[in-house]
Design a protein that fits this description.
The structure holds 2 protein chains of 2 kinds.
Chain A (H helix, E strand, L loop, with lengths): L5 H6 L10 E5 L11 E7 L2 E8 L7 H5 L8 H5 L6 H16 L5 H29 L3 H22 L8 E2 L2 E2 L7 H23 L3 H7 L7 H6 L5 H4 L7 H4 L20 H24 L18 H6 L1 H13 L6 E9 L2 E9 L7 E5 L1 H13 L4 H11 L3 H5 L1
Helix pairs in contact in A: 4-5, 5-6, 5-12, 5-16, 6-7, 7-12, 12-16, 15-16
Chain B lengths: L8 H4 L3 H10 L3 E7 L2 E6 L4 H9 L8 E9 L7 E8 L6 E8 L5 E3 L8 H12 L2 E3 L29
Parallel strand pairs in B: 2-5, 6-7
Antiparallel strand pairs in B: 1-2, 3-4, 4-5
The chains are: A mainly alpha, B alpha/beta.
Chain lengths: 405, 164
């Protein structure tokens, strides 16, 4: 499956010093590729000459599967794309379908969506921080990060019954009311978490070994980042000030105050600083969401689209009919197309949905941020040392489920 | 009730992307649609690379970021394929969707990798899953499916499960 011409793949190429380059396979089973990613590296001694990412090992044809499901049945599939931030996927899909339908979502559902989305962002960043630091030799950070991640997963389990594949957001609102005591527990966590971020930073930010491994490594200029389609902290670490939560607010983000961290260095350390700062901003948004959580329904008033409450379904004839119809034949969505982009922890996550007026989507396309970020990897690594490839992969924070879909 | 889509070019000329294209060469714009706050412009097939370059380098509203590139199969109607390009202007945060219709017999279109290197993977994906060829692409190979795979899974005449 290699993309090099056969002769290069076998023996490398002539270099200026008269030696030959060597072609080296990294992955698909390699601990630092964070999944099944294969990199074909062409190296000249310790220096990387070319990098060719090979993807597709996790391709499961989710886009094709979506076309055979009812709209509401697609929600659990979206969890499995980027499995580190399932709620972000749920949200992007639900917002896209709601835009097609023209649904209005009640305020409490919107605030809950922001709250859960920011907790998901923290969850995703913690996995990134732990594994990235471990790749570079800092084992302790991993243990600290997963300690806090465990708390977050308990929150997800509280609201949805699942630790990872949550499917908590539904078309028209939320699946369930958050349970009693949920907000108090999140509040306790939110009060404690900034201290935890200080701990991580105490281990890494001023650490000379970590700085040597990350400062000035895998540089990406702003022009290259835009041309290669990078997103999220990878783009902001290169000095491009864009965040869809602020620039194109969705699901009530316009009610929240937060800063968008931007660094201009464009190296691994800059991306690290952006994400760590985002942890602090996210927990600030969690506090705001807890403080201002409105009362009211958690589902839109659209009986033909949203499943009725259990109580209503058992006592009202009409609700029973709607329930039966939604479950057996789905709900129709007016013909049209939408592209809904939201800010996932990794960058712009876009759902492009085409409806032909039936109960099943005609086409669902996911714009995965990891797929886009992966294209920037070659530019970062070429000319650097082979040991820095590991740092570069960690810094773009790819999830292979999102790359391959 | 959703508002009706606007399809009149004159009403939509205030959008920077459409204004720039009409100013450059009005004949490349085949149709427009403004629906659910999103503008779609159908572009003549032969002009797509030039249109992308013009929009990217537009002075007052540069659409310099290619968000997404994909394809829709309208089998069995003709023209069968529709290429979809989502562009974003990082400076003004405006978005626009470009579309190009391709017929089903031997779908091919000029690659936009020379305008945005990021189109590389997306075009390979469309080639792999839809069988649309991109002329001028530096490395047009399958990306998701194995190299020796037969058929293009996202085409509508390809079954969701079972053997073909």
């Amino acid at each position: 499956m290699t993309q090099f011409p056969a002769t290069i793949a076998e023996s490398g190429r002539e270099t200026t010093s008269g030696d030959r380059t060597l072609v080296l396979n990294m992955g698909p089973q390699h601990p630092s590729t964070h999944g099944v990613l294969r990199l074909v590296l062409e190296i000249d001694g310790e220096t990387v000459v070319r990098v060719k990412p090979e993807v597709g090992f996790l391709h499961t044809g989710i886009e094709k599967t979506c076309e055979a499901k009812f709209y509401q049945q697609v929600v659990p599939l979206t969890d499995r794309i980027d499995y580190l931030c399932p709620m972000t996927n749920n949200l992007a899909y639900c917002l896209a379908v709601e835009k097609l339908l023209g649904l209005d979502i009640p305020p409490k559902a919107q605030w809950m969506r922001v709250l859960m989305n920011e907790l998901t962002r923290i969850n995703s960043h913690l996995v990134w921080l732990g594994t990235h630091a471990m790749d570079l030799g800092a084992m302790t950070v991993f243990l600290y990060c997963f300690r806090e991640r465990e708390d977050l997963q308990r929150f997800f389990e509280m609201v949805s019954g699942q630790r990872m594949m949550t499917s908590y957001f539904r078309i028209g609102g939320l699946a369930l009311e958050p349970p009693l005591g949920f907000f108090e527990k999140v509040k306790k966590f939110a009060d404690r978490f900034p201290g935890n971020v200080d701990e991580y930073e105490g281990l890494l930010t001023g650490n000379p070994i970590f700085m040597m491994r990350t400062k000035g490594i895998a540089r990406l200029s702003a022009e290259d980042a835009i041309a290669l389609g990078a997103g999220g902290p990878t783009l902001r670490g290169s000095g491009v000030d864009i965040d869809l939560r602020r620039d194109a607010p969705y699901t009530g983000y316009e009610n929240f105050k937060f800063k968008v961290p931007v660094r201009t260095e464009g190296d691994v350390f800059a991306r690290y600083l952006c994400r760590v700062q985002e942890l602090r901003e996210s927990i600030g948004m969690v506090q705001q969401a807890l403080g201002g959580m409105p009362e009211g329904p958690i589902k839109a008033d659209a009986p033909k689209v949203v499943l009725p409450d259990r109580e209503k379904m058992k006592t009202e004839m009409e609700a029973l009919i709607y329930h039966f119809k939604i479950v057996t034949e789905g709900f129709t969505v007016p013909a049209g197309e939408v592209y809904q982009a939201i800010e996932s922890p990794r960058g712009e996550m876009g759902y492009y949905i085409v409806s032909d007026g039936t109960a099943k989507p005609y086409r669902v396309h996911m714009r995965g941020p990891s797929f886009a970020n992966l294209q920037a990897l070659a530019k970062m690594c070429e000319g650097g040392l082979i040991a820095d490839v590991v740092a570069a992969i960690g810094s773009i924070d790819i999830v292979l489920g999102d790359v391959d879909r | 009730m959703l508002p009706r889509p606007i399809t009149d070019i004159e009403q939509l000329k205030s959008h920077p992307a459409l204004a720039r294209l009409v100013e450059w060469k009005a004949s490349v714009v085949q149709a427009v649609k403004f629906d659910r706050d999103e503008l779609t412009i159908w572009i003549a097939k032969d002009a797509i690379r030039e249109v992308c370059a013009i929009l990217r380098d537009s002075a007052d509203c540069p659409f310099n970021y290619l968000c997404d590139l994909t394809c829709v199969d309208w089998h069995p109607s003709e023209p069968r394929f529709e290429m979809v390009y989502h562009l974003l202007s990082i400076a003004t945060k405006e978005r626009v969707r470009l579309k190009v219709r391709l017929d089903g017999s031997s779908p091919a279109i000029e690659s936009v990798t020379s305008v945005w290197p990021s189109a590389n993977f997306y075009e390979r994906e469309v080639f792999d899953l839809f069988g649309v060829r991109f002329t001028g692409h530096p490395n047009l190979q399958r990306i998701m499916m194995p190299d020796d795979w037969e058929g293009h899974p996202l085409r509508k005449d390809y079954p969701v499960e079972g053997y073909r």
